Amino acid sequence: MENDRAKILWDFQIQTDRMVMANQPDIVVVDKEQRKAVMVMVDKEQRKAVVVVVDKEQRKAVVVVVDKEQRKAVMVMVDKEQRKAVVVVVDKEQRKVVVVVDKEQRKAVVVVVDKEQRKAVWWWWIKSRGKPWWWWI
C-alpha cells in the first residue's frame, strides 16, 4: 500500500549484507518526506514486540524491545553523527538501568536506579584511564 507520502509493507524482506533468517518484519512503514522507516515485529507465542525506527537524514536509529512475560523493556538509541549510543533497560520488578556510551570521548556512564532502597549508582568508565569511577547517591 502506497501514496505520495508513505508506504506500508508486509511480507517484505529487508536487504542485508548477509543472509539473516529474521529479516522479514511483520510491518514496515516508510515515510518518504521525512526519510524515516518504522519496522514492527511481534512474537505472539513469547509475548514480545520489537520496534525499530530508522532516521536516514539525521543518521539515528531507535530499537525498542518489549517482553511482556518478564515485564521488561529495552530501548537502544544510536546517533551516528555524534557517535553516541544510549541503552535503557526498564525492569518493572526490580530496577531501571541506563547506559550512555560516547565513542568520541571514549567513555561510558551507567546509572542503576534501585527503587526498593531508593538509591542510584553512577558508574563512569573512561577508556584512556582504564579504571572505573563510581558514585553512590
Tell me briefly what this model is.
With 137 residues, this protein is mainly β.
Provide a descriptive summary of the structure in words.
There is one protein chain. By secondary structure, the chain is mainly β. It has 2 domains: 1-58, no CATH class; 82-137. It is built from no helices and 11 strands. The chain has an 11-stranded antiparallel sheet, with no helix packed on it. A hairpin with a 4-residue loop joins strand 9 and strand 10. The protein starts with 5 loop residues before the first strand and ends with a strand. 2% of the residues are buried. Residues 132-137 have low confidence and may be disordered.
Write out key terms for the chains shown.
about 140 residues; 2 domains; 11 strands; globular
Shape: globular
- Structural class, judged by helices and strands? mainly beta
Helix fraction, binned, reads: under 10%
Counting DSSP E segments of at least 2 residues, the number of strands comes to: 11
What would the average pLDDT be, to the nearest integer? 68
Distance between the termini: 52 Å
Give the strand order, joined by hyphens, for the main sheet.
1-2-3-4-5-6-7-8-9-10-11
Which residues sit in consecutive blocks of at least 5 with pLDDT less than 50?
Answer: 132-137
CA-atom Rg in angstroms? 18 Å
Strand fraction equals over 45%
